[in-house]
Amino acid sequence: MSEAASTFNAIETPAAASAPRGLFSWVATVDHKRIGILYLLTTLVFFVMGGVEALLMRIQLARPNNTFLSPDAFDQLFTMHGTTMIFLVVMPTLIGLANYLVPLMIGARDMAFPRLNALSFWLLPCGGLLLHFSLLAGGAPAVGWFSYAPLSETPYATTSGVDYWTLSLLILGVGSVAASINLIATILTQRAPGLTIRRLPLFVWMIFINSFLVILALPALNAAIVMLFIDRHLGTHFFAPANGGSAVLWQHFFWSFGHPEVYIMALPAFGIISEVVPVFARRPIFGYEFVAASTVAIALLSFGVWAHHMFAVGLGHPVDLFFAATSMMIAVPTGIKVFAWSATMWGGAIRLTTAMLFAVAFLIQFTIGGLSGITFAVVPIDWQVTGTYYLVAHFHYVLFGGTFFAVFAGLYYWFPKITGRMLSERLGKLNFWMALIGFNTAFFVQHFLGLMGMARRIYTYPDLPGWGLLNMISTIGAFLLGASVLILLWNIIVSLRHGKPAGDNPWQAWTLEWATTSPPPAQNFDRVPPIRSRRPLWDLAHPENPDPIVGGATARDGFVLEKNRVGIVSFLITESVFFLMLILAYLYYNNHDMNGPTPTSMLNPQRTGIYTLCLLASSFTIWLAVKKLERKKHSAFRWLLMLTILLGAVFIIGQGREYLRIFHEGVMVNSNLFATTFFTLTGFHGLHVCIGIIALLILMALAFAGDFKQGRIEAVKSIGLYWHFVDAVWLVVFSVIYLKLLL
Amino acid sequence: MTTEQFFISAWNWNPWVIAICVATILIYAARNHFRLSQKFGWLLAGIIIFFLTLASPIDALADGYLFSAHMLQHLLLLLIIPPLILLSLTPAPVPQNFQTGCWRWLNWILRHPVANWFLGVGGMWLWHAPMLCNAAVSNAWIHRLQYVSLLLMGGAFWWPILSPWKKQRIAPLAGMIYLFSACLGCTVLGIIITFSPVEVCSIYLHPVDRLGILPLIQNQWGLTPAKDQQLGGLLMWVPACLIYFCGIFGLFARWHGEVRDEVIIPDSQPKNLFTEKSHGH
C-alpha cells in the first residue's frame, strides 16, 4: 500500500518499455493495452478519411447549383461518410478506449479472452479495407448508411458497392460482438478483490450495459445484411417488392438495430463524461445510483423506440402513438444524467483543463441534440422535418457535439496514462475553441436550412433566398472543425516526443487505472490498492476522511461466475437474436397463401419429426457425457460424445435429403418467398449444427489424446451448452415451420 | 348509446368477484390485526385492480367486442395483480407439510427461475394461440380457467423477484436479465400480433352485438377490427415491457438500497423453503 501511496507525488520520466519491440510485436500482440492503442490509431486514420469525405460534400454544398461533385460521387460520399463514421470510427474508438481502460479500471491483468480480443481488433482493418476496396471495384456504395431496400437491391444498385458494404459490415459486426462478449466476461469475472459491481467506476458500468446492447442489437443488423446479401447474390426476394418481398421489413430490421446503435454510440460517451466531470470538479459524482440506473433505463428503452425512425412510412396511428410515447420517455433517464453531471459541477472546485472544457461543451451540445431529438417524437413534426438538414443537424449534435466531444475529453484525460506524457494544454485549448466554434457554425445553421425544407442527400440545391449564405457559413464551420482536428493530430505528435512527463496520477483522479505507472507495465499492476468504495485512490490518499464503504465490508458479490461460461452464454444470447430475425422473417412471409411451392406441398413433418427426435436425443447424450466427465468416467464420456456426433450427423443427413427432395421438384431458394425464407432459416440452422459437429469432433480428438484428464472441463461444458442451444433453436424452428402442418 | 352511458351501465356486479375481493381483504386484515401498513396498501391496490379488471366495462368490451380490451385484462391479470399481491405478503413461517406431496412439487417450481420464466412468458403465448384465444371468449368455463391460470402463472413468474422470502429471490443482475428476456418474449409476440395481417382471435372479427355498442366502438371510437388487433399487439409489446422495466428498476433500487451485499457461498445449494422454517420458529 505504501508503494501505491508514494506514487502520488513521484513524477518520473516514462519508463522505457520492457515489452517486446518491433512492428511484428504489435501485430502479434494480445496485450489489451496495445490492442486498445491499435484500435485508437486505426480509428484515427478512418476518422481523417471520413472527415475528408465530409469536407468534400461541404465544398459541393457551399454554393447553389454547384458542379464540384457529380450526383453519383455525392451519393457515394455521404454513404461512405456515414458508414465510416459509425462503423469504423465511433464504435471502434469507444471499444478501443474500453479495451484499454476497462481492465485497468477494474484492477485486472488483461481481458478475459486476450486472443479473442486480438481477433476483434484485426477484423476492424479487414472490414475497413473491404469497404474501401469497393472504390477500386466499380464504385463505393451509394445508397445511404441505412441501405434502404429496394434501392439497395440488384436492379437499383448495380455496382458491387453494396456487396462490399454488406460484407464489410458483417465483419465489423462480428468484431464488435466479439469485443463486447469479451468486455462482459472481463467485467463479470476479472475484477480485483473488493471491486463489487456496486463499486464499479461508472465508465465500466456503462461499458458493461453497452456491451449487452451490442450483443443484442448487432445480430439484428447481421441477419438483415445476410438477407440482403442473399437477395443480391442468389436472387431471393426478402426485400424485393417485385416478388412479394417487403421493403418495410428491411426498415424494421435495420432500425431495430439502428436505434439501439444510437445509444451504443452514446452510452460509453456518457461513461467518459461521468469520469471526467467529477475529477475536474473535485467532487464525487452526484447520484451515482441514479446515473447507473438511468443507463439501464436508456438501454432498455432503446429497444422499444425504433419505429420513430419510420413515422413517415405509414405504420398506422396506433403504432405512431405508442412509439411517440416511448420516444419521449427516453428523454427522462437522459435528463437525469444531464442533471447529475450539472449537480456534480455545482459548487465544485472546477479546473477548466482541456478535458473538462470538452466535457462541458459535451453537456451543452448533447442537450441541444437531445432536445431536437424530442421534437422528432412528435409525429407531425417528424413528418415535416424528417429527411431534411434539421435531422442532419440533430444527429450531428448528438454524435459529434456529443460523442466526439466526449471522446476528445477522454483523450485529453487518459492520454497521459496511455503514453506517459501530457498533451499540451496550450494546443489543447486552441483545439477546443476551434472545434467548438467550427462545430456550432457548421451544424447550428443546418437546423434552419432543414426547417426551410432543404433535403439531405441531394447533391445540390436551387438558389433560394438565404440558402446559399447559410450553406456557405456551414461549410466555413466545417473547415474550421477540420482544422481543429489537424491541431489535435499536431498536439499528439508533438506531445508524444516533447510532452511533459505525466507521472502516475497527474489529475489526482480516484479510479484504479491511476494507481499504476504511466504507461502501465505489461502486467498492469504489481499490487492493487484495497477497494472499499467507488474511489479507492481517494481513500488511499485521505485515510482520515475516506468515502463511506459501499455494500458492507464483505468485498464480494453474491455470485461467482466462470469466464468461459459467461463468454458462451453471451455468445448464445447474440445468436438467439440472429435466429429470432430469421424466424420472424419466415413468419412474416408465410402467413398467407402464395403462388408456387408452399409448406404443405413441399414438407413432410412426420419424417422431419423423426430426425428432430434424433437431434433432441443428442442433447440428452451430451448432457450425460458432461455428467460422466465430471465423475471422471472417461471412456463413457468418449462413447457418449461419439453417440452425440452420430445423432447430429443423422439429423444433418435427414435435412440434406429433404433439401434434395425439394430440389428435385424444381424448387430453388429463389422460387418464391416460402423457398427463400425456408432455405435461409433451416440452412443457417444446419450450418450451426455442422459447426457444432466439428466442435464435438475436436473435443473427441482432444479426449482421445487424454486432454480432459487434468480438468479443462469448462471447454466441454461450453460446447455442450452450444449444442443444447442448437437443439433448442431447432425445436422453435420445427414448431414454426412443421408443427403448423400437423395441426 | 353514448360513451358515457356505456361506461356507467356496463359494470358487471358479479357476486363471485365481489365475494373474492371482500373475503381477501378481510382475511388479510384480520391476520394483520387490522393494522394499516404499506403492505396492506399493496394488497388493496391489487384487489382494486382485480375488481376493475373483472367488473368494469373493460370486461364487457373484452367479452367478444375488443381484442385490445381482452389484452388489457390479460396484462393486468398476469403482470400487475400478481406482483402487487406478492408485495403484500409477509415472510410467514412455512407450514409443516411443505416438504410432502404436491407442496414439494410446487416448491421445486418456485425454486427454478427457468420454470417460472416459462410459466410467465408461456402463459402469454399459450392463451394467444388462435384456437385457445377463441375458445376462451366463447366458453365461460375456459374463460374462468384463463383468468385463474393467468393469475397463477403471473404469481409464479414474479416469485423469483418478489418472493417474501429473501433467500428465494435471484441475484439482482440475474433478475434484470430474467425480466428483460421476458420483455423480449412478449415483444416478439406483440410484434407478430401488431403486424400480422391474419386475425389472431378471429372471434373478435364479427362480434355478436349483445349490448348494442358496436356502432359506438366502430364508428365513434374508430376501432375497426384491424386497428383493434394492432392496438392489442402494441399493448402487449410496449406497456407490457414497461411493466417489466419497472420491475428492473425496482430490483436496481432494492439492490443499491441494501446496506450490505448478500454473500452466498458459491458452491452451496440454492436455499429452499424449509431452511426458512428454522428462522420462522
The strand count of chain A comes to 0
Report the C-alpha radius of gyration of chain B, rounded. 20 Å
The low-pLDDT segments of chain B are 264-281
Q: Which parts of chain A are unreliable, with pLDDT below 50 for 5 consecutive residues or more?
A: 1-17
Number of helices of chain A: 23
Strand residue percentage of chain B: under 5%
| Beta strand % of chain A | under 5%
By DSSP, the count of extended strands of chain B is 0
The chain-level mean pLDDT of chain A equals: 92
Largest sheet of chain B: none
Topology order of chain B in helix (H) and strand (E) letters = HHHHHHHHHHHHH
Q: Helicity of chain B, in percent?
A: over 70%
Mean pLDDT of chain B: 83
End-to-end CA span of chain B:
60 Å
Structure, described:
The complex is a heterodimer of chains A (about 750) and B (about 280). Chain A is about 70% helix and about 0% strand. Chain A has 23 helices and no strands. Chain A has helices at about 1-5, 25, 30-60, 70-105, 115-135, 160-190, 200-235, 245-280, 290-300, 315-330, 330-345, 355-375, 380-385, 390-420, 425-450, 465-500, 535-540, 565-590, 600, 605-630, 635-665, 675-705, 715-740. In chain A, α3 (about 30-60) runs parallel beside α5, α6 packs antiparallel against α7 and α20 (about 605-630) runs antiparallel to α23. Residues about 1-15 of chain A have low confidence and may be disordered. Chain B has about 280 residues and is mostly helical. Chain B has 13 helices and no strands. Classes of the chains: A mainly alpha (about 750), B mainly alpha (about 280). The interface of A and B includes residues 557 and 580 of A.
